[in-house]
Design goal:
There is one protein chain. The protein is of the alpha+beta class and about 475 residues long. The chain has 3 domains: about 55 residues, no CATH class; about 190 residues, FAD/NAD(P)-binding domain; about 200 residues, no CATH class. Helix content is about 30%, strand content about 25%. The protein contains 12 helices and 22 strands. The strands form 6 sheets. A 7-stranded mixed beta sheet has the order 13-14-17-12-20-18-19. A hairpin with a 4-residue loop joins strand 8 and strand 9. Helix 2 runs parallel beside helix 4, helix 2 packs parallel to helix 12 and helix 3 packs across helix 12. The longest helix has 17 residues. The radius of gyration is 24 Å and the shape is flat.
Length: about 475
């Protein structure tokens, strides 16, 4: 039988059913009403877990085996005037990779140290990561996860491949000025005084590189305030989340630590949602300024922490900023700083984070004790709600309304075993650097390409990588 090579076929199996290709072919053949030996060779393209209605099943997407090199076209020898890329994160790295595919040289300048010390285009991003050492399973999983411990090796392999074909990466290189000639960006000046000149400049910094906003404004580049979100991290014991999500199947050896995804719109229409959920993960410090406390989440590839954590955040709209008199393009940055400083004060120093049991938070009272946590600097039991209320926006009230709704979506989510840890303030950039919708070039300075999270055009590793690819293609035309 001929299967459509461009079509996916879904097969549903139980937890204890075999999942080898021969068994999957038998299931598909039964669905199609044909003998299994008449099917062509199959490959697994995607897999996911369906735990709805209390019945846990695997959904496996298969298709006919396709030819082609994993990762698509590789980088080739580069030449000519370089494209200067400010920032070596996902946006900058994938921009350089796509430029190298077209034979265009790039120079990435990154203020940090090398990383060891610190379907369609989406499919392309995942395949490129796999070629450079990411686990092969990310090609198949509905929620692909590399692992914070493995990602540095993957990024290092990509960087080394770029350097092999002639592109460059400079670490410890902080950009202090954009070099503009006759209205066109032609280079950057570094803190040490070096000046790099090229054919274009891509600004691909992360959402926390706040000083880059000053560099752009001095060069005559407009900035715009944009909505963002702030809140807390919520942490549960992972077995509790497994029980809520998997029911009686919790603990089955084939099931990974359970994730979740929640969303709710409070009465004032400010969306509340879970963000960057980390099953079997850790809460980690993420502050970039000495007088603030910021928390984030990560999971190692094994996802073997006994805790599950997620951002639990509420949208901050431009109207919220206006009511506070924060009407400049960087007003959102100032609001982030105010919340981060309040968290540092409540934490008592040494990166300790203020924390409150969820049940206490819903009652509007501080906690005298908090559960054990993955956050290594330590938690300071207290009143996270009071910290959120210091900035003049009712974040705490919105989160209380949302938590009540989330309990309705996941029975057992609200418990004294869960703790809120403050603050999650860096979900995305509160600033956007405008660019032409087609050319992706700044309308104020020709040859300048705002890109990725810091410019307000992405919100995570994959979306930032995709934006880097788009910008590279715009440059090469």
């Amino acid at each position: 039988m001929q299967l459509d090579p461009d079509r996916d076929y879904s097969v549903e199996i139980g937890l204890d059913d075999p999942d080898d290709l021969a068994s999957l072919a038998k299931h598909l053949a039964a669905q199609l009403g044909v003998p299994a030996d008449e099917l062509p060779a199959l490959e697994v393209r995607k897999r996911s877990i369906d735990a709805r209605r209390g019945r846990v099943r695997f959904h496996i997407v298969v298709g006919t085996v396709t030819a082609g090199e994993l990762g698509g076209a590789p980088p080739r020898e580069v030449s000519g005037a370089p494209v200067l890329i400010v920032g070596g994160g996902p946006a900058g790295l994938f921009c350089a990779y796509e430029l190298a595919r077209a034979g265009v040289k790039s120079i990435i300048v990154d203020r940090g140290k090398p990383v060891q010390a610190r379907r369609g285009d989406i499919r392309d991003v995942i395949e490129i990561l796999t070629v450079h050492g990411a686990p092969h399973e990310i090609l198949l999983d509905a929620r692909p996860h590399i692992g914070s411990n493995k990602l540095p090796k993957v990024i290092t392999a990509m960087r080394e491949r770029l350097e092999h074909v002639g592109s460059e990466v400079r670490f410890g290189a902080r950009v202090v000025e954009l070099v503009v000639h006759d209205g066109r960006a032609i280079g950057v000046r570094l803190a040490g005084g070096d000046e790099l000149i090229g054919r274009a400049v891509v600004v691909a910094t992360g959402h926390s590189a706040r000083d880059v906003h000053d560099v752009l404004e001095r060069a005559g580049v407009r900035l715009e305030a944009k909505p963002f979100a702030m809140g807390v991290r919520i942490e549960h014991p992972q077995p509790l989340i497994d029980q809520i999500q998997y029911g009686r199947a919790a603990g089955h050896p084939k099931l990974p630590p359970a994730p979740y995804k929640l969303a709710f719109t409070p009465a004032d229409k400010r969306g509340a949602f879970s963000f960057c959920m980390c099953p079997g993960g850790w809460i980690v410090p993420a502050a970039t300024e000495p007088d603030g406390v910021v928390v984030n989440g990560m999971s190692l590839s094994r996802r073997d922490s006994p805790f599950a954590n997620s951002g639990l955040v509420v949208s901050v709209e431009l109207a919220d900023l206006a009511r506070l008199g924060l009407t400049t393009p960087t007003g959102g940055v100032e609001l982030q700083r105010r919340l981060e400083r309040a968290a540092a004060t409540a934490g008592g120093g040494e990166l300790r984070a203020p924390a409150t049991r969820v049940t206490d938070f819903l009652r509007g009272k501080p906690s005298s004790t908090v559960p054990a946590s993955s956050y290594q600097p330590g938690l300071a039991a207290g009143d996270v709600g009071a910290v959120l209320d210091t900035i003049g926006i009712p974040l705490a009230a919105r989160l209380r309304e949302a938590l009540a709704a989330f309990e309705g979506q996941m029975r057992g989510f609200v418990t004294s075993e869960a703790v809120l840890v403050g603050v999650e303030s860096r979900t995305s950039s509160p600033v956007r650097v405008p660019r032409d919708a087609v050319r992706l070039e700044s309308p104020d300075v020709a040859g300048l390409y705002p890109c990725g999270e810091g410019a307000g055009f992405a919100g995570g590793i994959v979306s930032a990588a995709l934006d880097g690819i788009r910008v590279a293609r715009a440059i090469t035309g």
